[in-house]
């Protein structure tokens, strides 16, 4: 032996295990990438949905303000390039989402229990 021996070739079993590990890692990386794309798409959709909701609120508030200034549905539709149906929908949306009165405060006095009632409530007798 002269020290120039060729290294041993890996067995088929070792080669198969190595290849299986590579395939597994590749599939996991693809799955992570797919999940990241799905997550980003969902975030984009939610952001767009929020922007649409904000736009609806702005339109509804604008229609409400124009009505308070005496404009009719026809004039609002003409001024804002909306259909009558869109003006009506915005008006309904504004009615649903604009509080008309402040919530009423509780005005009844709070009744306190006397000693005997307190013992009865706690099961002491």
TrEMBL record:
Residues 113-125 have a biased composition (Basic and acidic residues). This is ANTAR domain-containing protein. Residues 94-125 are annotated as: Disordered.
């Amino acid at each position: 032996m002269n020290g120039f021996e060729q290294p041993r070739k890996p067995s088929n079993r070792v080669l198969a295990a190595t290849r299986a590990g590579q395939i597994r890692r590749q599939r996991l990386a693809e799955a992570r990438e797919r999940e990241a794309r799905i997550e980003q798409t969902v975030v984009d959709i939610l952001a767009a949905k929020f922007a649409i909701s904000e736009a609806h609120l702005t339109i509804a508030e604008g229609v409400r303000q124009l009505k308070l200034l005496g404009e009719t549905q026809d004039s609002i539709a003409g001024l804002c390039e909306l259909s009558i149906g869109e003006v009506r929908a915005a008006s309904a949306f504004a009615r649903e989402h604009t509080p008309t009165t402040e919530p009423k405060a509780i005005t009844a006095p709070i009744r306190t229990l006397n000693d005997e009632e307190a013992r009865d409530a706690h099961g002491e007798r």
